[in-house]
Amino acid sequence: MAALTTSQEFLRISQMLTNLTVSIPIALITASRIDEIETRSANEPTLASLNNELRKKLKAVQGPQDHTSMAQAYEVYAEACFWLEMADRGVRLDRTPGTGQLNQKRPDFVHAHPAGHVYFEVKALEIADPSTRHNQIAYDALDSTADLDARARGPGVHFGNPVEISGPLPGTSLAERLDATIEKITNNVKGDQIHYGPTVLVVDLGRFNTMPYGPSSLLPVFFHDCPPAESCVSGELWQIGFGTPGEQLFSLPEFDGKSNLAGHQTRNGIFREYPGLMAITFVHPRWNQKSELLTLWNVGFDQSVLKNPCGLSESDIDDLLYKFSDGVNDSSNERGWYFRVIPLRP
Question: Where would I find the H helices in 189-339?
Answer without folding.
Answer: 191-194, 236-242, 270-273, 314-324
